[in-house]
Specification:
The strands form 11 sheets. The chain has a 5-stranded mixed beta sheet, with no helix packed on it. A 5-stranded antiparallel beta sheet has the order 4-10-6-7-8, with no helix packed on it. A 4-stranded mixed beta sheet has the order 13-18-19-20. The protein is elongated, with a radius of gyration of 29 Å. The chain folds into 2 domains: 6-192, no CATH class; 196-566, L-arginine/glycine Amidinotransferase, Chain A (5-stranded Propeller). The longest helix has 26 residues, at 425-450. The chain is α+β, with helices and mostly antiparallel strands. Helices cover 16% and strands 29% of the residues.
Length: 567
C-alpha cells in the first residue's frame, strides 16, 4: 500500500469530511509556545476524495492525503454533579449528557491504521476518554501515559476532562500505519480554565441579602430598596433559616471557569468562617454546573478569612502587561491575613496576579472597608478607584456649622454635633496618623500594582474610630461609604447601593445630608446611587452594605484569547 502524504492544517481529514472550529473557521495553528506550526504551501499535496478522484476531475491510485493537526482544548473543571447522584463528577466515569468535558474529533482512518495517544503534564488532574465510560489515559486508578486504539469507520470523539483549575497537559496524537510505523504526529495543548474572580464592570446576574427583623435590628428598608431597583435579579435570604447571620459577602465568593466549547463552570468558594451561613452555598446554590469548594483549615480561621477581605480590580495594564481579567487583592502581611491555602490557590491561577494590602490596622481587617472600584465609561480606563480619605472628611466638617446636630452620632458614637467631632484632638490625631501610616501607603500600592494615575482615584470623606476590645484596631465612624455594591443591570444602568451616613439633623431628609452631597458629587455621572439604611444591622456591627450583600456576575468568556500570555 502506498504511504500517505502528510500536510499540516487544522485537523485530520479524509475525503470530503472537514473538521474545523465551532464556527467553521481554521484555528491559527499556534503551538503551546506560541510559534507557528509551519504550514507548507498549498501545492505540497493534492486533496482527494476516498474514491481517488482529485478536485480537478482526474484520478489517482494513491489514497487520500492525511491532514493531521488538532486545535488546542480549553476546558473547565468537572467538579459539579450533573447527574445529581451525590458524587462529584470527577470521581466517576464520564457519562452521556456530561456538559463539563471537551471534545476532540478524530476522523476515520484507513483500514488497518490506528491512533496512538500519549500525554505529559499534570496527569493527576487531566484525563482523556475514548467516549463515555471508556477511560483512555491520564488520571484513573493509576496514571496512564499512553493509549492506542482504532477509530470506528465514522471516526472517534475523544472526551477531555479536568479535575482542577489551570491545569496544563500536552497530548500527542500519532497516526500509525498497518505495520505500526508512524505516519504523522501532532501535539495538542490541553488546558483547563483558571478559577476567575469577577470584577465590578461585569453585568450583574443575581443579588442576595439576608433579610432580618430581630430585636437587635431590621434591614427591611434596605431589602425594600434592593427589591425595588433589582426586581427579579434579587432574592432575600430568610434570616431565621441561617441564624440571622447577615454577613453573606463574608461567607461566599462566586468565581467561574469558561471553556472554549461553551462550557461554564461556576464555583462558590465557601469561606472557612463557618458561622450560621455556612450551609447556604450547599443548600441554595450547589448543583449541576455549580460546585462549592473551600481552601484553608477552619480551625485556623480569623476575621481576615471573610471575603470582604478578597476583591478584584477591573482590567488594567501594568508596566506594559495586560491583565484583562483584573488583579486580585486581599489583606495579608507576612503570615497574617487571608489563609495561606486560599492565597496560594489564587496565586496559582496566574491570570489575576494577586497582590497584598495591609489590613492589620483595622478591627475587622477587610479590604472593602477602605476601597472599591466603580465603572466610569468616560474614564480612559473605564473605572475609578474610590478610596477612603481623611483630609476630605476634615475639610467637609470644617465647612459645616459647629452646632449642627447629629442625632445618630450622639446616640451611638458619643458626638452630638459637628463641633464635638472637630475639637476631639485624639480623634483627629488618630485619623491623621491612619492617613499617613496606612491609607497613603495603600494608595501607593494600588498605584504601583494596578498602574493607576491620580486621575483614576476619587477620594471619599472617611473617619475611623478605635474599637474597644480589638487590640487598637479601628472601624468606620462615618459609615464606610466605599463599602458599597455595584450592580450593572441589563437595562444598561449601573446602580450603587451605598450606606446612608445619616450625617444630618433631620434623619428623614437625605437631601440635607452634606456627606451624601459630597459623595454623590464625586461619583461618575453615569452611576445611580441609592443610599440605604444599614446603620443598626451593619454599621453598628462593624460592617456596611458590601459586607451584607453578595452577587453573581456574567463571566468574561474568552480568557484563552485575552489572558493566555499570563500563563
Amino acid at each position: 500500500m502506498a504511504k500517505l502524504s502528510v500536510r499540516w492544517l487544522v485537523m485530520l481529514t479524509l475525503g470530503p469530511a472537514v473538521a474545523c472550529g465551532d464556527d467553521g473557521s481554521e484555528p491559527s495553528g499556534m503551538t503551546e509556545g506560541g510559534s507557528d506550526t509551519g504550514t507548507p504551501d498549498d501545492d505540497t499535496t493534492t486533496a482527494v476524495t476516498t474514491t481517488g478522484q482529485t478536485l480537478d476531475g482526474t484520478t489517482t491510485d494513491d489514497p487520500p492525503p492525511i491532514e493531521w493537526e488538532f486545535p488546542p482544548v480549553f476546558g473547565v473543571i468537572n467538579a459539579d454533579d450533573d447527574d445529581a447522584n451525590g458524587t462529584n463528577d470527577w470521581y466517576q466515569p464520564v457519562f452521556d449528557g456530561e456538559d463539563d468535558v471537551s471534545t476532540l474529533a478524530i476522523p476515520p482512518v484507513p483500514d488497518g491504521y490506528s491512533v496512538h495517544l500519549s500525554m505529559v503534564g499534570d496527569l493527576a488532574n487531566a484525563r482523556v476518554w475514548n467516549g463515555p465510560g471508556a477511560f483512555a489515559l491520564g488520571s484513573g486508578n493509576q496514571i496512564v501515559e499512553s493509549y492506542e486504539f482504532t477509530p470506528s469507520p465514522e471516526g472517534a470523539e475523544l472526551l477531555v476532562e479536568f479535575g482542577s483549575d489551570n491545569v496544563f497537559a500536552g497530548l500527542s496524537i500519532t497516526l500509525l500505519d498497518e505495520d505500526g510505523a508512524e505516519v504523522a504526529t501532532a501535539p495538542v495543548e490541553l488546558r483547563s480554565s483558571p478559577l476567575i474572580l469577577n470584577h465590578h464592570l461585569q453585568p450583574t446576574e443575581h443579588v442576595w441579602v439576608v433579610a432580618v427583623n430581630a430585636g437587635w435590628g431590621t434591614n427591611a428598608d434596605m431589602v425594600a430598596v434592593y427589591e425595588d431597583v433589582l426586581g427579579d435579579h434579587f432574592t432575600p435570604v430568610p434570616g431565621p433559616s441561617y441564624g440571622n447571620d447577615v454577613w453573606i459577602q463574608d461567607e461566599i465568593q462566586p468565581a467561574y471557569g469558561i471553556g472554549d466549547q461553551g462550557q461554564r463552570a461556576d464555583t462558590i468558594i465557601d469561606s472557612i468562617r463557618d458561622r450560621e451561613l455556612d450551609p447556604f452555598a450547599e443548600n441554595e446554590l450547589e448543583g449541576p454546573d455549580v460546585n462549592v469548594r473551600t481552601w484553608g483549615n477552619p480551625a485556623q480561621v480569623t476575621s481576615w478569612d471573610s471575603f470582604g477581605n478578597l476583591e478584584n480590580s477591573p482590567p488594567v495594564t501594568v508596566d506594559g502587561v495586560d491583565y484583562p481579567l483584573g488583579r486580585i487583592y486581599y489583606g495579608r502581611q507576612g503570615d497574617l491575613g487571608i489563609h495561606g491555602d486560599m492565597a496560594a490557590q489564587l496565586v496559582a491561577q496566574e491570570v489575576q496576579a494577586p497582590f497584598e494590602l495591609d489590613t492589620l490596622w483595622l478591627c475587622v481587617g477587610h479590604v472593602d472597608e477602605f476601597a472599591t472600584f466603580v465603572p466610569d465609561p468616560d474614564s480612559p480606563k473605564g473605572f475609578k478607584l474610590l478610596l477612603a480619605d481623611v483630609p476630605s472628611a476634615w475639610a467637609l466638617l470644617e465647612s459645616l456649622p459647629p452646632d449642627m446636630a447629629l442625632p445618630r452620632y450622639g446616640a451611638d458614637h458619643g458626638y452630638d454635633t459637628v463641633g464635638e467631632l472637630l475639637v476631639d484632638a485624639a480623634l483627629r490625631n488618630l485619623n491623621d496618623d491612619l492617613q499617613a501610616d496606612e491609607l497613603d501607603v495603600i494608595r501607593e500600592v494600588f498605584v504601583t500594582e494596578l498602574g493607576l494615575e491620580e486621575s483614576d482615584i476619587v477620594y471619599m470623606p472617611s473617619l475611623f474610630e478605635t474599637i474597644g476590645g480589638c487590640g487598637g484596631g479601628v472601624a468606620a465612624l462615618i459609615p464606610g461609604m466605599v463599602n458599597l455594591i455595584v450592580s450593572n443591570l441589563p437595562s444598561g444602568e449601573t446602580h450603587l447601593f451605598v450606606p446612608d451616613p445619616y450625617f444630618r439633623t433631620d434623619l428623614g431628609d437625605q437631601g440635607s445630608d452634606p456627606v451624601i452631597d459630597a459623595f454623590t458629587a464625586n461619583l461618575p455621572d453615569s452611576l445611580v446611587p441609592h443610599y440605604v439604611d444599614d446603620w443598626d444591622v451593619y454599621h453598628l456591627g462593624l460592617g456596611e452594605v458590601h459586607c451584607g450583600t453578595n452577587m453573581t456576575r456574567t463571566p468574561i468568556a474568552n480568557w484563552w484569547e485575552v489572558a493566555l500570555h499570563l500563563l
